[in-house]
Design brief:
Layout (H helix, E strand, L loop, with lengths): L1 E3 L1 H5 L9 H14 L3 E3 L7 H13 L4 E7 L2 H11 L5 E8 L2 H8 L3 H18 L3 E6 L6 H14 L3 E6 L6 H14 L7 E6 L6 H10 L4 E4 L13 H10 L1 H4 L10 H12 L16 E2 L2 H9 L18 E2 L7 H10 L6 H15 L7 H9 L15 H13 L1
Parallel strand pairs: 1-2, 1-8, 2-3, 3-4, 4-5, 5-6, 6-7, 7-8, 9-10
Helix pairs in contact: 2-3, 2-12, 3-4, 4-6, 6-7, 8-9, 13-14, 15-17
This protein binds 3-methyl-2-oxobutanoic acid (KIV) and zinc ion.
């Protein structure tokens, strides 16, 4: 299962603020995408966020809706008031479990934390059938105390135990072992759903979530484009495509519709005003772009040479062959023929040389540049027929035409 927390962990991070209308638009798209649960926000934090959660809970059908509460009645009441009209509501409670947090953030003892957590889980269960408990900073906690916490919250009525690597500290093997141990040893583990929530401080959020899945967790909390506190969260598109591309090895599936991934990614980027980094896995502008000549040659011969997933699978029309100074003749000829340009052998030689001149001075040679290259006035207005002996002159003129 996939819990999407783009609207809570993602939206809460600097520079990603969304108003209620934008949150509702994204929630509708997440519903189309087919996530199992949408975490709509943190209702106690502001009136606006409370309203956004309430509108999402009223409108979204076929997808669970949850919102976050600290382990205090006021927060839990706010969550319940905001999401109780959802088709499948769930209250999400967070309370720290690591000694660092217990001592330095909460100023409590382990026993006090256990008591407060259990009381609040029991209270939330009087309101809602589904209660998720997140022992915050589980990744840095004492494993024995974490086990005791998990058992206590299950006994108090939690239906989902979410193990967060809040600070992105764990290594995949370590995190997988931790989750495996909790699932194997915690009393009552068979009565709850084990979920994980990983942060990307060391770039391991997806690897850690995957390790947890292979260890038996059955829900991943993630965000579109991997946005979230600090370096972000496990990114939804990475987990979904991992499960799909490596299905035969992992033997796990989720119900997300991958062809909605790009649309969702673009909507989140547009509404948050934050573009996706070009080399981002799955959804970055370069994720299906090929620039090096060796790769372009391979792709043009057979996509399987360099693509492990099809662009259509994630909702893109096609992959891109980007013409740069590193491109080879195969890509150059291929693009010319797609543009319907027919040249003689001598003209092609001339055009190739000019292309390289231009490419050395430009990040990408566009179709428009290519058209100029083959129809430059310097080339007689109709190609390179008369200019084959004067490449440098043509290149100079084109540099002027293209760069101004
Ligand atoms: O990172 C974290 O620990 C969280 C919890 C609320 C799950 O976001
Ligand atoms: Zn988080």
């Amino acid at each position: 299962m996939i819990l999407d927390t783009t609207l809570r962990d993602g939206e809460g991070s600097p520079g990603f603020h969304l108003d209620a209308n934008s949150k509702v638009r994204i929630a509708r798209q997440l519903e189309k995408l087919g996530v199992d649960v949408i975490e709509a926000g943190f209702p106690i934090s502001s009136r606006g966020d409370f309203e956004a959660c309430r509108r999402i809970a009223r409108e979204i059908r076929g997808t669970g809706v949850t919102a976050l509460a600290r382990a205090v009645r006021e927060d839990i009441d706010a969550v319940w008031a905001a999401i109780k009209e959802a088709e499948t509501p769930q209250i999400h409670i967070v309370l720290s479990v690591s000694d660092v947090h217990i001592k330095r953030k909460l100023g409590m003892t382990r026993q006090q934390v256990l008591k407060q957590g259990a009381e609040m889980v029991a209270y939330a269960r009087t309101l809602c059938e589904r209660v998720e408990y997140s022992p915050e900073d589980a990744g840095r906690a004492d494993p024995e105390y974490l086990l005791e916490t998990v058992e206590t919250m299950i006994a108090a009525g939690a239906t989902v135990i979410n193990i967060p690597d809040t600070t992105g500290y764990c290594l995949p093997g370590e995190f997988g072992e931790l989750v495996h141990r909790l699932i194997a040893d915690a009393r009552g583990a068979d009565r709850v759903l084990f979920s994980v929530h990983c942060h990307d401080d060391l770039g391991l959020a997806t690897a850690n979530a995957l390790a947890a899945l292979t260890a038996g967790a059955r829900r991943v909390e993630c965000t579109v484009n991997g946005i979230g506190e600090r370096a972000g969260n496990t990114s939804l598109e990475e987990i979904v495509m991992l499960l799909r591309v490596r299905q035969s090895r992992l033997d796990l599936e989720c119900r997300v519709e991958p062809t909605e991934i790009i649309r969702t990614s673009r909507l989140v980027a547009e509404l948050t005003g934050t573009p996706v980094q070009p080399n981002k896995a799955v959804v970055g502008a370069n994720a299906f772009a090929h620039a090096a000549g060796i790769h372009q040659d391979g792709i043009l011969k057979d996509r399987l040479n360099y693509e492990i997933m099809k662009p259509e699978d994630v909702g893109l029309a096609d992959s891109r062959i980007v013409l740069t100074a590193r491109s080879g003749r195969h890509a150059f000829h291929h693009r010319l023929s797609r543009l319907g340009v027919v040249l003689t052998e001598a003209q092609t030689q001339a055009a190739w040389k000019v292309f390289k001149e231009v490419a050395d001075n430009k990040r990408e040679v566009t179709d428009e540049d290519l058209r100029r290259i083959v129809t430059a006035p310097e080339a007689g207005g109709g190609g390179f027929a008369d200019q084959t002996n004067d490449h440098n002159h043509v290149a100079d003129t084109l540099r002027h035409l293209i760069f101004g």
